[in-house]
Structure formats: structure tokens, C-alpha cells
Design brief:
The radius of gyration is 22 Å and the shape is globular. It is mostly beta strands and 414 residues long. 38% of the residues are buried. A hairpin with a 2-residue loop joins strand 11 and strand 12. Helices cover 6% and strands 52% of the residues. The N terminus is likely disordered.
């Protein structure tokens, strides 16, 4: 069920040559609530003893996505995904009675609206498909499979989003295909922007752009290969590209030798069988010239979009989860109820170059356990208890979360 929905939503199976025109409308969405038994203050890691015992609750709409796809026939197709993160952005112009009737722009709700995918595709054969446009970069397990029915937690796996973009989408060219048990994909796209790297998210914020365009002074490549056999899928993916000089201001001659080569390697797997699902993966990345990039970013203007913080040379994310369907032995028809557990380790400052201060709170272990109930295949109700286990002297970060999500199609006709 999950792999079928994924394939249709992100175009993982090519349209047949000469097929009649077909419109596909679908999407997915999540609504969540969390009660966090720790402080959410921005400076809670500076003096952790002052924030022990604090707590807060949150409601959120992490991702609501609408997918539109169309098969033009003769091997031509298109796909789009519009994503509303955290409820989107609500702004309005209002007249303020208590401020002399002045007009002011009010922000009613934070969030983001993003065009996550927009591509045109020519399918020559199952083994060869060419896609051009805005494409998901399938590096790591979460970027490959990020819909709510493809992970057990109430939220997406935390570690992946803490070191690389998630969901990672870029404008570029993709060549992909599948044959037998194998599937491959290779992409060319603009490089990430080193001026937006930082200590907490490493290179995660380097994939977007604060401007009306994406700076493309450097070119990068990514690739992925997956192999399937008897309920098991194993994938290997990677990325390489220079990241320095992707800025509006051209660096002067003092920085000519700085490349900021970013390399990322990942291995991930999933297994389904014996009423169980097991998933896991590891991402490791290295950034050259991280000390020079740190120095350059800290010299940027105060109003620049750069975090202007230390940048590590190496970062890691590793996680594994397993769930068992307790409805399977008692044969509850068309419903599933998974008990699951998950473990993660991630560190956005695993290693630093000489002279760059390392922050221990950027790395942690995380454990979680909970349930996933599927009344029908397209809808899941989730609940979990999780705890971020911090190094001393920082406070651990436990929380309880619940959520409801869907993945599916609203209409599909020929």
C-alpha cells in the first residue's frame, strides 16, 4: 500500500507510451499536538540550569500537500506538489483603532508555502526517463520516503532534518529508471549555499533561498540506487558539490582558494514481512574549508540571511525503527495497529576544523515508542512518547505527541 501511493505521488513509475490522457489529484496532510516537558526558550542551552522543569504544549500542521499530475500521452507527463508547512502564512492589512487608524500588515500565523515539485518528464522506456524542473533530491531515507504513512513517528525522523535539507527539492535535471529489482536516479542541480550553513542545522538551510531566485554559481550532482528482494529494499545515495560563493556578493581575491566541497553519503533500508516493518538509515557528510566558511559568514552584514554561527566539518544522522501489527494474529480485517520503537543519534557538529568551537548540545540520542493505528490504509492515527537524551549539563527533552494524517488520492480519472 505505502509503496504504491509513493510511486504515484512522486512519479516513481513512468507513464506508458501512448497512454490516454489522465489527471491525478492527491496529497497528504498531518495535524499534531505535542506536550514538551522542557523549555522552548531560544537560549535554553546557554544556562541550562535556569530552564530545568519548564514545559509547554504545541499544536501544528507540519505538512499539508496537494499533488497534481497529468499524463499527456506519448510518454509525456508532468507533476506538481504544493506544500503548506505549519499552516501556511496568513497576513492581512488591518486598520488599527488604537494607533490612530493606521494601516498595518499583521501576521496572523507563521509558516511556509512552497512549490516542492514541478517537473516535466519524457519516458522513453521503464529503464530510461528524463525529468526536468523542480525535483525532490532523494538523498537519505526521509527525502526518499517522507509521507506520513512511511514513518512511525508523529513527526518526520528528527536527525535527518537536523543535518541536510528535508524535504530537499531543487531545480535541475534528473535521469532515472528501473529494471527488475533495481532502480536508479541521477541528478544535476545548483549547489547549496554555504553562507546559510550553521551550527544547529549544519547544511540543512542551504537548500532554499531567501531571494526570489536560487543562486546557481556552482553545480552539484546527486545519485541514488535501490535494490529490492523479498520484502527488503536497500538503497545507497550520495551528493557532491562546491558550496562557497553562492552569494549575492562575490568574495574578493582573499577567498579564491575556498571551495567548500560538500560530500554526503547515505545508506538506508526497509523491510516488510511477518507482520513487521523495520526501517533505518545512516547519513554522513563532510564539508571542506568549514573554518574559512565560518570566518566568511561571521563577516557578513547583520541583516544578511546567514546565521553567522560556527559550521562543522562533519555531521551524522543515524536511526532505526521497528513496528509490529498486533491486529495481524487476531485477523482484524483491513485494519492495522502497530506498536513501534525508534532510536536516533545525530550531531550537526560531530567534528570541527581547528579553531572552531564545538557545541555539545548540537548532538543527542533520541528514543521513542508509540502506536500507529490504520482504520483504513490511507489514514493513520499516531501517538508516541519520545526523549532527547542530552550530554551533561544540558536537560533531557522528553515529550508526548499525538497526530492524525492521511495519504491518498481525491480523484483520478481518464
Amino acid at each position: 500500500m505505502n509503496s504504491k501511493i509513493t510511486s504515484l505521488l512522486i512519479g516513481a513509475s513512468a507513464c506508458a507510451l501512448g497512454a490516454s490522457a489522465q489527471l491525478t489529484v492527491g496529497g497528504y496532510g498531518e495535524a499534531t499536538y505535542s506536550y514538551n516537558f522542557f523549555s522552548d526558550a531560544w537560549n535554553r542551552y546557554k544556562n541550562p540550569q535556569n530552564f530545568a522543569g519548564q514545559h509547554h504544549g504545541r499544536v501544528d500542521l507540519p505538512h499539508v500537500v496537494v499533488y497534481l499530475g497529468y499524463d499527456f500521452g506519448k510518454g509525456w507527463s508532468m507533476g506538481t506538489e504544493i506544500e503548506f508547512e505549519h499552516g501556511g502564512v496568513e497576513t492581512a492589512v488591518e486598520m488599527e483603532d488604537d494607533e490612530g487608524g493606521e494601516y498595518e500588515t499583521e501576521v496572523e500565523r507563521g509558516g511556509e508555502v512552497a512549490l516542492e515539485q514541478f517537473w516535466l518528464q519524457k519516458s522513453f522506456m521503464p529503464q530510461l526517463n528524463l525529468r526536468v524542473g523542480h525535483i525532490v533530491v532523494p538523498v537519505g531515507s526521509t527525502n526518499r520516503a517522507h509521507m506520513p504513512v512511511e514513518f512511525f513517528g508523529v513527526y518526520r525522523p528528527e536527525g535527518d532534518a537536523k543535518i541536510i535539507p528535508c524535504t530537499w527539492h531543487e531545480t535541475g535535471i534528473s535521469l532515472w529508471g528501473h529494471a527488475g529489482r533495481w532502480r536508479y536516479e541521477a541528478l544535476i542541480m545548483p549547489g547549496l549555499d554555504s553562507d546559510r550553513f550553521g551550527r544547529e542545522g549544519w547544511v540543512a538551510t542551504g537548500g532554499g533561498s531567501p531571494y526570489e531566485f536560487k543562486i546557481a554559481n556552482t553545480v552539484a550532482g546527486a545519485a541514488r540506487v535501490d535494490y529490492r528482494v523479498d520484502g527488503l529494499r536497500v538503497g545507497v545515495s550520495g551528493y557532491a558539490g562546491n558550496t562557497f560563493s553562492n552569494t549575492l556578493t562575490k568574495p574578493n581575491s582573499n577567498w579564491e582558494d575556498v571551495k567548500g566541497l560538500l560530500t554526503i553519503g547515505a545508506v538506508d533500508f526497509d523491510y516488510s514481512g511477518y507482520d513487521m516493518i523495520v526501517r533505518g538509515g545512516v547519513i554522513y557528510g563532510h564539508l571542506s574549508n568549514s573554518d574559512r566558511i565560518t570566518a566568511y559568514n561571521k563577516k557578513m552584514r547583520n541583516d544578511s540571511p546567514s546565521p553567522k554561527t560556527n559550521v562543522a566539518s562533519d555531521a551524522i544522522s543515524a536511526g532505526v525503527e521497528a513496528g509490529y501489527d498486533i491486529f495481524a494474529p487476531i485477523k482484524v480485517r483491513k485494519q492495522k495497529f502497530y506498536l513501534f520503537a525508534r532510536y536516533d543519534f545525530y550531531d550537526s557538529m560531530l567534528r570541527t576544523a581547528g579553531g572552531i568551537l564545538r557545541y555539545d548540545w548540537c548532538g543527542r540520542h533520541r528514543v521513542a515508542a508509540g502506536v500507529n493505528y490504520y482504520p483504513i490504509p490511507q489514514i493513520v492515527v499516531k501517538g508516541e512518547y519520545s526523549a532527547g537524551i542530552m550530554r551533561r549539563p544540558y536537560n533531557n527533552e522528553p515529550s508526548v505527541s499525538v497526530g492524525v494524517a492521511y495519504t491518498g488520492f481525491f480523484t483520478r480519472r481518464k
